[in-house]
């Protein structure tokens, strides 16, 4: 600390000046504090107002977003929501499966009937075989009859005619039988084709349906859970907003310190004023009422104090500007 | 033999080994039609069945029809997971005792 030296002669006026200067500085600094507080409180209040506004906006945004999500999920008058769409898909899939099973069942029953039919057709074949045998026997009989007729000579001529007719009848019967067998063969070929068609209709692979059902079930589950999810998130968001608003409220309340602080500063100013007057009067009185013996001591005392007071009188506090960019919040 | 039958305790048991599809239709039908009907209990053993398509589902329904369309309960036992899924998607648990 540098010391300014005063001569005893200068002591009194220097001391008086120095005391006044000191009190002036006190007043100035009190002003500074008052101004700092006012400025800071104004800034904080602005900040909190802004914060509350932003929080409210964010809350609204979130609500509208979740409402839109809910709309997409559920049906309304003008559209089908995900939930209904997924449920419908599940129903369509089930109907497809039911249809497949019905078709397969009917096709398999048709195959059973075809097998039964094949048995009947084979019996027809067997019967036709029997008819052919009878026809061949008849042909032999007719041959024998013709031989007997020739032996009988003139008497057997009409008999020979009958025998010839019988032979041609049996031939006709065989031709019929051949045609029947041809038709039976055709019928059996057609039944074979029918069986192939029935096999194709009956044999559908089920793994496609299994896979699709699993995927639809997953989707249904997710879609069902979505509404619950939306409700939970909304509730959480509201709680957070309420919390922020409450904290802001607490902070704004704390700003009320400004009133009390300002009052205290005013008191400080008054006390300082009183002290100033008191000290000035005391210094004057000390000098003027001093005895010639005591005067030098008083002057020395005043000179000493004056020196120190003069040194600290004007040393303004450097205002360091604060940039919000340099402040780390967490 | 892919299709085997055993009769015990009034129950006709039909076991299907390997693929249960159209190629087994004749054998499966004969398994339950040829045997004299017991007091009505049927069991289809699918523990050795690896694959089943819709024709098998049709065959099972025809067996159920033969058993009286619900009058006699038809049990399906031993189905592997993939087979179970097929039975489930066709809602067969409503028509058969699946165990």
Outline the secondary-structure elements.
The complex is a heterodimer of chains A (330) and B (99).
Chain A: H1 8-73, H2 82-152, H3 157-202, H4 207-254, H5 257-288, H6 294-312
Helix pairs in contact in A: 1-4, 1-5, 1-6, 2-3, 2-4
Chain B: E1 3-8, E2 11-16, E3 18-20, H1 25-33, E4 41-45, E5 49-52, H2 54-66, E6 74-77, H3 81-89, E7 97-98
Parallel strand pairs in B: 2-4, 3-5, 4-6, 6-7
Antiparallel strand pairs in B: 1-2
What does this structure look like?
The complex is a heterodimer of chains A (330) and B (99). Chain A is mainly α and 330 residues long. The longest helix of chain A is centred in the middle third of the chain and has 71 residues, at 82-152. In chain A, helix 2 packs antiparallel against helix 3. Chain A is built from six helices and no strands. Chain B has helices spanning 25-33, 54-66, 81-89; strands at residues 3-8, 11-16, 18-20, 41-45, 49-52, 74-77, 97-98. In chain B, helix 1 packs parallel to helix 2. The A-B interface holds A 94, 97-98, 100-101, 103-109, 111-112, 115, 199, 202-206, 209-210, 213 and B 21-22, 25-26, 29, 52-55, 57-59, 61-62, 82, 85-86, 89-91.
């Amino acid at each position: 600390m540098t010391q300014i030296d005063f001569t005893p002669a200068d002591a009194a006026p220097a001391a008086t000046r120095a005391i006044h200067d000191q009190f002036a500085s006190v007043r100035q600094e009190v002003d500074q504090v008052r101004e700092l507080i006012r400025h800071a409180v104004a800034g904080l209040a602005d900040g909190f107002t802004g914060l509350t506004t932003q929080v409210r906006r964010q809350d609204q945004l979130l609500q509208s977003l979740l409402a839109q999500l809910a709309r997409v999920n559920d049906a309304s008058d003008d559209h089908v929501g995900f939930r209904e769409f997924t449920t419908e898909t599940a129903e369509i899939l089930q109907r497809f499966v039911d249809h497949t099973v019905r078709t397969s069942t009917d096709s398999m029953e048709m195959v059973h009937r075809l097998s039964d039919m094949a048995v009947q057709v084979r019996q027809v074949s067997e019967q036709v075989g029997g008819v052919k045998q009878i026809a061949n026997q008849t042909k032999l009989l007719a041959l024998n009859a013709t031989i007997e007729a020739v032996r009988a000579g003139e008497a057997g001529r009409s008999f020979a005619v009958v025998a010839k007719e019988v032979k041609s009848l049996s031939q006709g019967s065989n031709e019929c039988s051949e045609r029947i067998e041809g038709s039976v063969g055709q019928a059996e070929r057609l039944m074979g084709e029918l069986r192939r068609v029935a096999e194709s209709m009956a044999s559908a692979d089920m793994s496609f349906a299994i896979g699709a059902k699993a995927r639809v079930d997953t989707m249904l589950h997710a879609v069902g859970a979505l509404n619950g999810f939306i409700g939970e998130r909304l509730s959480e968001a509201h709680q957070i907003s309420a919390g922020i608003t409450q904290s802001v409220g607490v902070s704004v309340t704390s700003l009320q310190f400004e009133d009390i602080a300002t009052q205290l500063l005013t008191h400080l100013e008054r006390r300082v004023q009183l002290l100033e007057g008191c000290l000035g009067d005391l210094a004057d009185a000390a000098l003027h009422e001093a005895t010639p013996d005591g005067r030098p001591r008083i002057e020395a005392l005043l000179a000493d104090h004056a020196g120190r007071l003069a040194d600290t009188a004007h040393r303004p506090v450097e205002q360091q500007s604060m940039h919000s960019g340099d402040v780390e919040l967490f | 033999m892919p299709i085997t039958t055993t009769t015990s305790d009034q129950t006709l048991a039909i076991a299907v080994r390997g693929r249960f599809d159209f190629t087994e239709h004749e054998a499966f039908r004969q398994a339950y039609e040829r045997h004299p009907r017991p007091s009505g209990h049927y069991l289809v053993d699918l523990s050795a069945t690896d694959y089943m398509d819709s024709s098998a589902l049709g065959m099972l329904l025809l067996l159920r029809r033969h058993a009286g369309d619900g009058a006699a309960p038809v049990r399906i036992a031993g189905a592997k997971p993939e087979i179970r899924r097929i039975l489930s998607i066709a809602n067969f648990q409503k028509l058969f005792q699946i165990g």
